[in-house]
């Protein structure tokens, strides 16, 4: 993504936060001067003024040409129907509807004022500017729109729960991505505004507020994020719809079904016995040498540094042996970074949901054992930070070994292909032997995650897709370690 497009994305969030802060002050001053103005009235004033400020600001920068409505596409309103999923989901979160004329009126006004302001900024201005000024691809444009829309919700943490703010941000990523896709394929900003307004208006009626402490649940938010992300990706990649927000100032209206690109049939690939044996030897030697280091070395720093070096040698060996696969797949993957990032994010969400579900299932059948601590939970913050280097190397080496050498290169062999998926997934779980001190039950959830990663590789047909997914999955742990390290420094100071 071009540097200026990235700066515009960040500037959009910063400017929005500043404008909301200033207009909220004006709203509270109005309520102080006019006691009849309620809390909802203050928020309505804030949203309307914020929209006016951004509309005026856009005339100076970035001067995006916002398309409010395009009459050339018939039945485009159907694309708003999926928001019913949010209404049904929120209806399960113990709503307390207030059905009065005044409340319904305020819900409509406030819901659509929020939708008008936020969709104008993050879809109308940001999406249009990225396409018109910087010629960014539609998928990456929509992903950035969803991420920036999510980030601006961090402002809600100042007056509420940080946890629920993060849950709200998760939901905002999926919905923001979807609304951006709708705008891109219809050239009609009113559609995202209507969809957004329906959701917020419903929540006001159901919970009496738009505060993230009400009407929020981590599981429904995960569901919204996954469902709407896939819906958005389908809208942008299917040949049924043409992207209307053009990068060159011209576009054609065409909602007729176009011929789909025919993907090549998966062919049987020759397997190198020597390469495969080397790949299998890498994790075996890493586990064996790691155990030897633990036996002969009592100093924790030396032990962790030696383990990091062992993993580094294993990584370099795997890359050297399969550099041809990595190079060939990268040439294809780099042209689809936006969609690849989206698939990776959805894969991470699915992996953590699967991890949680399997662990709960093991608990229900009485197999789960306590004490699933890893090296990060028993070492000091500094040791854990150094130890986490293996976590950064793991996605590359493990995907080469377990997903390519033990599974993907065996494709096109019928039942044997899927047998290798099972074998590689079990081996992937067992490679965490030292992390869980030999407790096999604790490794079972990672066997399921390994199968998920294998399927991502199989259907994407690109090793970099699963490497990126695995890397994002592991980087969450590294971020947690960094936070522990910073906290330790602060406490020591």
From TrEMBL:
GO molecular function: metallopeptidase activity
All copies of domain CAAX prenyl protease 2/Lysostaphin resistance protein A-like, residue ranges: 103-201, 383-476
UniProt superkingdom: Bacteria
Alphabetic keyword roster: Hydrolase, Membrane, Metalloprotease, Protease, Transmembrane, Transmembrane helix
Transmembrane helix recorded as keyword: yes
Pfam families to which the protein is assigned, alphabetical: Rce1-like
InterPro entries: CAAX_protease, Rce1/LyrA-like_dom
Chain segments annotated as transmembrane: 7-26, 32-57, 77-95, 101-122, 216-236, 273-294, 300-323, 335-355, 375-394, 415-434, 440-459, 471-490
Cross-referenced PANTHER family: CAAX AMINO TERMINAL PROTEASE FAMILY PROTEIN (PTHR36435:SF1), SLR1288 PROTEIN (PTHR36435)
Family under the similarity heading: Belongs to the UPF0177 family.
Protein name: CPBP family intramembrane metalloprotease
Organism annotation: Secundilactobacillus angelensis
């Amino acid at each position: 993504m071009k540097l200026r497009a990235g700066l515009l994305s960040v500037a959009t969030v910063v400017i929005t936060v500043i404008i909301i802060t200033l207009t909220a002050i004006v709203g509270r001053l109005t309520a102080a001067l006019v006691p009849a103005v309620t809390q909802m009235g203050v928020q309505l004033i804030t949203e309307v003024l914020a929209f006016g400020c951004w509309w005026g600001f856009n005339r100076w920068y970035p001067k995006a040409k916002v398309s409010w409505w395009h009459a050339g596409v018939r039945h485009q309103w159907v694309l708003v129907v999926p928001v019913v999923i949010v209404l049904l989901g929120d209806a399960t979160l113990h709503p307390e509807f207030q059905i009065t004329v005044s409340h319904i009126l305020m819900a409509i006004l406030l819901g659509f004022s929020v939708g008008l302001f936020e969709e104008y900024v993050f879809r109308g201005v940001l999406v249009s500017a990225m396409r018109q000024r910087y010629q960014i691809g539609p998928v990456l444009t929509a992903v950035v729109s969803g991420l920036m829309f999510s980030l601006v919700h961090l402002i809600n943490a100042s007056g509420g729960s940080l946890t629920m703010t993060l849950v709200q941000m998760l939901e905002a990523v999926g919905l923001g991505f979807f609304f951006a896709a709708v705008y891109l394929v219809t050239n009609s900003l009113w559609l995202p505004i209507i969809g957004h307004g329906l959701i917020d208006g419903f929540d006001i009626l159901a919970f009496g507020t738009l505060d993230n402490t009400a009407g929020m649940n981590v599981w429904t938010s995960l569901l919204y994020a996954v469902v709407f992300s896939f819906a958005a990706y389908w809208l942008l990649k299917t040949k049924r719809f043409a992207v209307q927000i053009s990068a060159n100032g011209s576009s054609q209206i065409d909602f007729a079904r176009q011929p789909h690109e025919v993907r090549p049939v998966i062919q049987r690939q020759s397997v190198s016995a020597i390469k495969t044996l080397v790949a299998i030897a890498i994790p075996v030697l890493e586990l064996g040498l790691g155990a030897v280091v633990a036996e002969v070395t009592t100093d924790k720093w030396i032990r962790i540094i030696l383990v990091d070096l062992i993993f580094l040698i294993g990584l370099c060996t795997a890359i050297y042996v399969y550099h041809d696969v990595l190079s060939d797949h990268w040439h294809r993957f780099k042209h689809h970074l936006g969609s690849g990032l989206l698939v990776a994010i959805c894969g991470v969400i699915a992996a953590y949901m699967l991890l949680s579900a399997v662990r709960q299932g093991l608990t229900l059948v009485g197999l789960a054992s306590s004490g699933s601590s890893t090296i990060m939970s028993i070492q000091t913050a500094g040791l854990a930070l150094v130890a986490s280097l293996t976590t950064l190397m793991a996605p590359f080496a493990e995907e080469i070994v377990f997903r390519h050498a033990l599974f993907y290169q065996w494709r096109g062999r019928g039942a044997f292909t899927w047998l290798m998926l099972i074998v590689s997934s079990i081996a992937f779980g067992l490679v965490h032997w030292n992390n869980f001190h030999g407790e096999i039950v604790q490794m079972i959830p990672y066997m399921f995650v390994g199968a998920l990663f294998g399927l991502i590789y199989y259907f994407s047909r690109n090793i970099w897709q699963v490497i990126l997914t695995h890397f994002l999955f592991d980087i969450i742990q590294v971020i947690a370690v960094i936070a522990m390290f910073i906290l330790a420094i602060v406490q020591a100071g």
